[in-house]
Design brief:
Blueprint: H1 2-35, H2 43-61, E1 67-69, E2 74-76, H3 78-105, H4 112-127, H5 132-151, H6 157-188, H7 193-200, H8 207-225, H9 234-240, H10 243-267, H11 273-295, H12 301-324, H13 333-368, E3 369-370, H14 386-389, H15 391-405, H16 411-425, H17 429-455, E4 464-465, H18 468-486, H19 489-500
Antiparallel strand pairs: 1-2, 3-4
């Protein structure tokens, strides 16, 4: 027995090492900040980036171990590794932007660094969850750290208000999630995904209980991805939080939310396909349409990007709908369904990477802009003539906005192309048409910012960008936006392989 037990433990330690590095790293940053008084505060940023990069390196060079971990509580594979790389990359970029702002203002938030690591750890656990208890553990670890990141800026009323709203509404969403989990536990007799799958395959499953339970869990997931009508926190929180935290929430937390939403939607198939397909279709149309229409009326750039984030959640929901849609036609129905599902899954992964690059570049520039009086750069009119004062910052923000609008040759265009192509292949042409129309609507409010930057005269009270490292980092992200837009095939094929190997 010991012969088989020891190698299994050894392989599990290797698979768990990235999670342990981030967890222990968060504690290490806290200890260093508390006891090493000779260390400069900005050195915590280097330690944080070292920890995140170390977690990535361990996954790249370590032995690949795919399958269940900790008695089935977690699962590892290319799907989880993909998201771990994405979270670590977003964490490194966020650290650079935050430290740049701290250096400029001379006000350091040493608690930011361990909170960022714990939020990242929660996302990693959430994506690897193979049990309802692990889902809750990952979600709450991520959420509790983010609540403090949003509202923890001392002396800033807007930040405190945003953090309080996020905490209260997040608590309600967690209550819905827990109630849904309780119902599904009562239905399946266990909390593991394997227990749920087995119970779903019985001859006469209690569709009412599991349907109600999954609907309540969908409320919790919908809150995290900013899906209408569970989006109400998004504009206020995005506006009140510091820009580096807003960028982190708009990218990493949304990616984590969609990762678990995809897994859970697939778990509910095929018994609840009819319900999930109909409900998510309605939510997708409502989310992208409402987000784009409200964004048209915004004069605050952070609120505009918040509503834009809601709209992009709607586009991604189209991918989830396609993933679980019944395929059309003939004796090869099963093969066609699998093909369409893989195409939709790869499109979702590609979209999340492209969306993260675009938003990080945009919020990276917004983060370094400020009014001469020290006020945040949130009024779109304050960006008038930015192309003359800060040409690199203006070009970077312009590229990010054009890509978000889905204009070629940027990655946003290719992301929407792959996504809408998968929708069309599934025979959901009306949904693709609605998505394209919404994308066209969004062009107006993105271009409005570019017009202000390039076609209006600079004002004396206009915003200034004063932090070179963050501007250059955002510029590098903008180059990646162009590169993935011009040469997307290799990455899209990799995403296809990752999703093809996807399993529970």
């Amino acid at each position: 027995m010991n012969e088989f037990f020891v190698p299994n433990i050894s392989s599990q330690w290797g698979a768990l090492l990235p999670y342990l590095i981030v967890a222990v790293g968060g504690l290490l940053v806290m200890v260093v900040d508390s006891f090493v008084r000779t260390l400069k505060k900005d050195h915590l940023s280097y330690l944080t980036m070292f920890i995140l990069i170390g977690a990535v390196i361990v996954q790249i060079v370590g032995r690949r171990t795919d399958g269940e971990l900790l008695g089935g509580m977690m699962i590892t594979g290319d799907f989880t590794r993909f998201f771990n790389y994405l979270f670590a990359g977003i964490g490194v970029m966020t650290t650079i932007f935050a430290t740049g702002l701290f250096d400029r203002e001379g006000k350091y938030r040493p608690e930011f660094y361990p909170l960022l690591l714990f939020a990242t750890l929660g996302m990693m656990i959430l994506v690897a969850a193979n049990d309802l208890l692990t889902i809750f553990l990952g979600l709450e670890t991520m959420s509790l750290a983010t609540y403090i990141l949003v509202g923890g800026v001392r002396g800033n009323i807007r930040s405190s208000e945003a953090g309080f709203k996020y905490l209260i509404l997040g608590g309600f969403s967690s209550a819905f999630l827990l109630m849904g989990m309780a119902l599904i536990y009562g239905f399946a007799g266990g909390t593991g995904f394997a227990d749920i799958t087995l119970a779903m395959k019985t001859q006469n499953p209690d569709v009412l209980i599991v349907g109600l339970g999954s609907a309540l869990m969908l409320v919790g997931f919908g809150f995290k991805v900013a899906m209408v009508p569970f989006h109400m926190w998004t504009p206020d929180v995005y506006d009140g939080a510091p820009s580096y935290v807003t960028g982190f929430m708009a990218t990493a937390i949304k990616a984590a939310g969609f990762a678990i939403l995809v897994r859970f939607a697939m778990l509910m198939q095929p018994q609840l396909a009819f319900a999930w397909y109909s409900v998510l279709t309605g939510f997708a149309i409502l989310t992208m349409s409402f987000g784009n229409l409200v964004a048209l009326a915004q004069s605050n750039i952070k609120r505009m990007l918040a509503w834009s984030s809601v709209a992009h959640a709607g586009y991604l929901l189209l991918g989830v709908v396609t993933l679980i849609s019944p395929s059309a036609g003939g004796s090869d129905m099963m093969m066609r369904s699998q093909e369409i599902g893989e195409s939709a899954g790869a499109a979702i992964l590609f979209y999340l990477v492209g969306y993260s690059l675009m938003n990080l570049a945009a919020f990276g520039i917004i983060n370094v802009m400020n009014h001469k009086s020290g006020e945040d750069a949130i009024d779109i009119n304050g960006y008038a003539g930015l192309s003359r004062r800060q040409p690199l910052a203006a070009a970077t923000l312009g590229i990010a906005l054009l890509s978000l609008a889905g204009i070629p040759p940027f990655v946003g265009f290719m992301a929407k192309f792959y996504l809408f192509s998968a929708v069309v292949r599934a025979g959901l042409i009306p949904l693709a048409v609605i998505g394209v129309i919404n994308s066209l609507i969004s062009v107006y409010y993105y271009l409005r910012v570019i017009v202000v930057m390039y076609m209006k005269e600079p004002e004396e009270s206009g915003y200034q960008g004063t932090e070179l490292v963050s501007v250059v980092t955002s510029g590098v992200l903008a180059l990646l936006v162009i590169w993935l837009g011009v040469m997307p095939d290799a990455f899209h094929r990799a995403a296809l392989v990752i999703f093809r190997q996807f399993h529970f």
